[in-house]
Amino acid sequence: MSPSALADLHHDKAAVEPHSNGLRLSNGHTSVVASKQTEYLLDRNLHKSFPVVTGGSGNYLYLLDGRTVFDATGGAAVSCIGHGNKRVIKAVSTVMNTGISYLASTFWACEVVEELCKNLIHGTDGKMARIYLTGSGSEAMEAAIKLARQVFYECNPSTPRINFIAREGSYHGNTIGALGMSGFPLRRAPYEPFLMNNVHHVSSCNPYRQRADGESDSSFVARKAAELEAKFQELGPETVIAFVAEPVVGAALGCVPAVPGYLKAMKDVCHKHGALFILDEVMSGMGRCGTLHAWQHEDVAPDLQTVGKGLGGGYQPVAAVLISSRVVNTLLNGSGQFVHGQTYQGMPVQAAAALEVQRIVQEEDLVDNVKRQGLYLEQCLRARLADHPNVGDIRGRGLFWGLEFVKDKTTKEPFDPKLAVAQRVYNTSVSTPFNMTMYPGTGSADGLKGDHVILAPAYNVTKEDIEYIAQVASDVVHQVFRKLGNL
What we know:
This protein is of the alpha+beta class. The protein has helices at residues 3-8, 74-77, 86-96, 111-123, 137-155, 176-181, 185-188, 207-210, 217-235, 262-272, 309-312, 325-332, 348-363, 366-385, 421-429, 463-485; strands spanning 16-19, 22-27, 30-33, 35-36, 50-51, 53-57, 60-63, 68-70, 130-134, 163-167, 199-202, 240-245, 248-249, 256-257, 276-281, 304-307, 319-323, 391-397, 400-405, 439-442, 451-455. It folds into three domains: 1-70, no CATH class; 89-363, Aspartate Aminotransferase, domain 2 (3-Layer(aba) Sandwich), CATH 3.40.640.10; 365-487, Alpha-Beta Complex (Aspartate Aminotransferase, domain 1). Helices cover 36% and strands 19% of the residues. The strands form six sheets. A seven-stranded mixed sheet has the order 9-17-16-15-12-10-11, with helices on both faces. A hairpin with a 2-residue loop joins strand 1 and strand 2 (22-27). Helix 4 packs parallel to helix 13 (348-363). The two termini are 37 Å apart. This is PLP-dependent transferase. One of its GO terms (molecular function) is pyridoxal phosphate binding.
């Protein structure tokens, strides 16, 4: 039985009729809005009607219009163990039932918080030493930026280290500091006057668009390392705080993994000049890429690391900074405190959710399943879409895969942004008869042009699920480009 057929056993279909504000369900004598524009919430798009979700279970979302949607993206690669997990719900309820609604981490400790931190450190094989817990990936990156600066300030308040180096085609968050670190022109544009002027960018590591014909991995990596070294020299090596990168670039480029040897080469340049090596694994970490941490794919541990989405699986807003001994020891031998803090950091209810998610991942050996099913997903996607004239690249790792669309496969020319190709693919996929999520993105060619979609299903998907995801993705892509060809 297919995943869609299985889902139908859990949720009855309902008839729908058109409505000016979306759809209305015909339900006996009662009509309810099934897709609507928000009236009070400042939503992502104030001109758009959104389907109303009424529930979820496992890989499925249940909509008010009667449809069952297969969630092949977990939002933005968030729902790593699926929806409605009773163990996590119970863990959250247990903490809430203690009566502890809030604890200020300035004054209080909590056992579940410490247990989560211990679990996370164990997952790094002791290569990281402490955990800073917060509420979102953007907050984690903001904390990492400040902590990196404080490392040098602790040793010398007059330190010349004021510069960061990050990459084009990157996304590190929405706060002013995190956005300033990002190399994402479309999201930066409205706020450029406010963004830090001490963040400098080098090129991304994108072999699809940057590798020369016949260029080996080692030559490509050497070229990237030379570029980073040149940027250090341009700024003055003694002025650089850190280099920041995503091991597998998510939303900005669509699941582009670093070439083998790249992370080590970048880390070596940083440590040669005494700078920190920071990895943003908010989207790609916590099992998403087939190792618990993406850097474990080649065992290149950072000085600071951010994680988020797969940490709590969407059951609570939670993220973290993983901190190396080098950084921790600097604080221990100095002021003994991090000059930073947020109201909702290290909350017991957040920690309880994240700890239970991580225990499930470990007990069910889900990271190994990610690796196995990820290889199968790659195989299925390539079998169905590698020869499509508008699928330029299929790339990713684990259960984190992207499809980049091009107008011309030979020249890799992107589509005109006005066509909104990625959004068309999403709109088609989430509509009947396909009813499956795909995550759209733009700017993958040059920061402004280029369309891609991401597939990032839950870690516990089966072989049957993978076949279903690949088949629906293929059907959607073929339909969208057939219609585009007729415009």
